[in-house]
Amino acid sequence: GNSVTQMEGPVTLSEEAFLTINCTYTATGYPSLFWYVQYPGEGLQLLLKATKADDKGSNKGFEATYRKETTSFHLEKGSVQVSDSAVYFCALSDPSQGAQKLVFGQGTRLTINP
Amino acid sequence: SAVISQKPSRDICQRGTSLTIQCQVDSQVTMMFWYRQQPGQSLTLIATANQGSEATYESGFVIDKFPISRPNLTFSTLTVSNMSPEDSSIYLCSVDDVARGTQYFGPGTRLLVL
């Protein structure tokens, strides 16, 4: 079945550091890929997405490129801020499975220190 | 994007009781989803709810424990029945934005079972 694997956390960085959170996936079809963010005490918010190979999703300074050859969708940001502290979830949906079911990775907790 | 609200936002319940969680969206949607996020864990899909038909449950979840209603295109409820401490989780509903190929999430209901 479909699955998503994220780098283990927690990740702690200093402000203005470069961020990479690795995400790889396994899918039987041609999935869409997503990054969601969960700020403390809140629900999930869509951060960015990509629907086909070589697409780049971007939002709020975050980027991720859909790499079919490596089955990856790594999240990057050039200069993180304290306000980026949150839990980040990589997810996929595979239309070949019918409904738009989302399969989530385990989440990566990010803490940014001033 | 759709605006989704959930009630209650949090609750503390005694074991053996049941709690019904409401999910309201500000536009008509075909598919709604219910997820569970156990403490420190990722999200797991409980079921998919389409208006006018019975919900479709994922492996490991049954209707007797998690009955779902979907009376119209803007509303759904999830009941957590005969609760035990293991049901302590965040329960989130989401809606499928077919045009954007994206799901949007409600703020979640934080449930603690004593």
Helix/sheet category of chain A: mainly beta
Strand percentage of chain A lies at: over 45%
Helix-strand topology string of chain A:
EEEEEEEEEEEE
Distance between the termini of chain B: 36 Å
What does this structure look like?
The complex is a heterodimer of chains A (114) and B (114). By secondary structure, chain A is mainly beta. Helix content of chain A is 0%, strand content 50%. Chain A contains no helices and twelve strands. In chain A, strands 2, 5, 6, 10, 11 and 12 form a six-stranded mixed β-sheet that branches. Chain B is mainly beta. Chain B is 0% helix and 54% strand. Chain B has no helices and eleven strands. In chain B, strands 2, 4, 5, 6, 9, 10 and 11 form a seven-stranded mixed β-sheet that branches. In chain B, strands 1-3-8-7 form a four-stranded antiparallel β-sheet, with no helix packed on it. In chain B, strand 9 and strand 10 (102-105) form a beta hairpin.
Record the SSE blueprint.
The complex is a heterodimer of chains A (114) and B (114).
Chain A (H helix, E strand, L loop, with lengths): L2 E4 L4 E4 L4 E3 L1 E4 L5 E7 L5 E7 L5 E4 L2 E4 L9 E3 L8 E8 L8 E3 L3 E6 L1
Parallel strand pairs in A: 2-12
Antiparallel strand pairs in A: 1-4, 3-9, 5-6, 5-10, 7-8, 8-9, 10-11, 10-12
Chain B lengths: L3 E4 L2 E4 L5 E7 L5 E7 L5 E8 L5 E2 L10 E5 L2 E6 L8 E9 L4 E4 L3 E5 L1
Parallel strand pairs in B: 2-11
Antiparallel strand pairs in B: 1-3, 3-8, 4-5, 4-9, 5-6, 7-8, 9-10, 9-11
